[in-house]
Amino acid sequence: MAGLLFPILMLGLLWVLMIRPQQRRLREHQALVATLGVGDEVVTAGGIYGTVVGLDDATVELRVADGVVVRLLRSAVNGRVVEDEGFDELEEWVADDRADGSGPDDEA
Description:
It is a single chain. This protein has two helices and five strands, in the order αβββββα. The protein is α+β, with helices and mostly antiparallel strands. The chain folds into two domains: 1-35; 37-108, SH3 type barrels (Roll), CATH 2.30.30. The protein has a five-stranded antiparallel sheet with strand order 4-3-2-1-5, covered by helices on one side. Strand 3 (59-65) and strand 4 form a beta hairpin.
């Protein structure tokens, strides 16, 4: 009985640490692909940033530059681009410090 318990424990640990997180990532990716809409800014698995201009059952058309539209499989979309507003606040803070004649590295 004890000899059978160890392999069962190892399989359970393997499932918890490897298989379950992979299934969760797969479900998240499928939800992302299913909810794509025209106007969404996305990044592809190849690292190309673009704006969705057309959708089909299996394909997505991305505008990557003025007059350049690329047609890709929906599954090639890796994620939506999220604007980080905290970075804009940092830029404003640095600009304010420079306008005062001091920099972020100056000591008080």
